[in-house]
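Is this the right way to post structure tokens for a design question? Let me know if I should format differently. Anyway, here goes:
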């Protein structure tokens, strides 16, 4: 892997601990935070950021941590990418906002043009922009309902689609996302997904038919406006469905006039080694939702889809004050240019090789010592997960996942967890991380796995 972070090299690319974690400045800020910030919003890492870029986050005490989280798959081109930063500064000096619904500007149109080109399928497309992933998903459902005149929406077990009322209803896991926040939006139906590690050998087509049978029986195809699915489930555990699952579902949707929505908020924008994760299965969604990696860290989200569906919504039916903010739009254009020039899809594939071989090596070592806690290693590109279990079973080991992440953090590496059972370590490095830094972080993670796994 060549070092490609020339455009993000302002922050020294190193792991360096100069205090304990958290250091005194972070501890002082934590106390202020506790008195000022609502406790419902929590943080994975107890250190406060001072700067970040390439593959590192530097905290207020001067500790430089290797970042395997990218702020949940957002800083794909780095958190202080020079092209993005320059575009943002230039646009902010021209105007920060007019509201696209009041006086439009070119960058919104240019982002729509780029997304229409980049997303799967060569049909005629249209795009509309919003701020967050949840907002994109909500609007995709609005569009599907308007175009079909139907109400029901199907989502899957282990799904995550956001924290607004409708997207909470679509999200599978109660704690922490839904607990005490109901009632939820009606007409949402949940179907079993494809989870190869836990499906006892069921193949993709079988898992799809299981879901289809339930949809037919419990909802009826003629009542379903949309099926919404993450091509690789993110928060639910980086679950890659068995081959064929997505294609059989998408074919069924097409045959029954059901809008197939791919939620690529987490898996999109080069993350999995292709521009979008549904390309791995040659699935062409009717609508695709995007956010996170789209704009180099600026808040922007989008729905792109078949022109006839997108344009079935009445004039004035879609919008929002900040949707497609001009600063976010120029950031997206710069970020997408970087992903193209640096060929970040290819970089994600190289990261996959490095990460998977390091993880397989630890898995073998642990298994040789009868400590087989690694139940599954899965994912694509720079979206890779390790599912931890009690040795010899498929029983989830969430405490071990937390311990490993904490151990890695104490050695200067940020690792996130996820999963319906909280037992999955997920690796989402910025795609501009250098090979050296990535290997160093993987060594720390391997050490953490070896030290924390029970004997
Ligand atoms: N769809 C597939 O992954 C956001 C959320 C973390 P927003 N995932 C991270 C948390 O605890 O809030 C996500 C996603 C998929 C939609 C969303 C929602 O995107 O930008 O957070 O609204």
């Amino acid at each position: 892997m060549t070092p490609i972070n020339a455009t993000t090299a302002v922050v020294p690319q190193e792991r360096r601990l100069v205090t304990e974690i958290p250091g005194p400045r972070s501890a002082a800020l934590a106390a202020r935070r506790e008195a000022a910030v609502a406790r419902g919003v929590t943080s994975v890492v107890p250190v406060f950021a001072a700067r970040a870029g390439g593959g590192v986050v530097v905290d207020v005490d001067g500790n430089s941590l290797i970042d395997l989280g990218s702020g949940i798959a957002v800083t794909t081109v780095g958190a202080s990418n020079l092209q993005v930063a320059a575009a943002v500064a230039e646009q902010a000096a021209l105007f920060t906002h007019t509201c696209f619904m009041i006086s439009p500007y070119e960058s919104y149109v240019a982002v729509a043009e780029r997304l229409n080109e980049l997303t799967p399928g060569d049909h005629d497309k249209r795009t509309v922009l919003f701020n967050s992933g949840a907002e994109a998903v909500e609007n995709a459902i609005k569009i599907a309902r308007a175009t079909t005149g139907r109400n029901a929406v199907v989502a899957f077990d282990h799904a995550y689609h956001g924290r607004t009322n409708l997207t909470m209803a679509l999200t599978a896991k109660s704690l922490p996302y839904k607990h005490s926040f109901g009632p939820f939006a009606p007409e949402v139906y949940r179907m079993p997904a494809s989870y190869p590690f836990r499906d006892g050998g069921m193949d993709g087509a079988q898992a799809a038919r299981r879901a289809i049978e339930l949809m037919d029986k419990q909802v009826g195809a003629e009542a379903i406006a949309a099926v919404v699915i993450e091509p690789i489930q993110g928060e639910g555990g980086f679950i890659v469905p068995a081959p064929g699952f997505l294609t059989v579902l998408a074919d069924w949707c097409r045959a029954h006039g059901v809008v197939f929505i791919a939620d690529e908020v987490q898996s999109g924008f080069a993350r999995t080694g292709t521009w979008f994760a549904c390309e791995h299965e040659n699935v062409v969604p009717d609508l695709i939702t995007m956010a996170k990696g789209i704009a180099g860290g600026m808040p922007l989200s989008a729905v792109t889809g078949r022109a006839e569906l997108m344009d079935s919504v009445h004039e004035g039916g879609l919008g929002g004050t900040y949707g497609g903010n001009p600063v976010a739009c120029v950031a997206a254009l710069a970020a997408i240019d970087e992903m193209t020039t640096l060929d970040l899809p290819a970089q994600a594939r190289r990261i996959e090789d490095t990460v998977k071989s390091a993880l397989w090596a630890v898995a073998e070592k642990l298994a040789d010592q009868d400590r087989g806690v690694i139940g599954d290693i899965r994912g694509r590109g720079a979206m890779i997960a390790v599912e931890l279990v009690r040795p010899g079973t498929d029983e989830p080991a969430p405490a071990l996942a937390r311990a490993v992440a904490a151990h890695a953090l104490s050695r200067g590496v940020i690792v996130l967890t996820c999963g319906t059972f909280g037992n999955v370590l997920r690796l989402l490095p910025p795609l501009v991380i250098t090979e050296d830094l990535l290997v160093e972080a993987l060594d720390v993670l391997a050490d953490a796995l070896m030290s924390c796994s029970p004997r």
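Format looks fine. Someone answered above. Worth noting: The CA atoms of residues 194 and 234 lie 13 Å apart. Residues 344-368 form the longest helix (25 residues).
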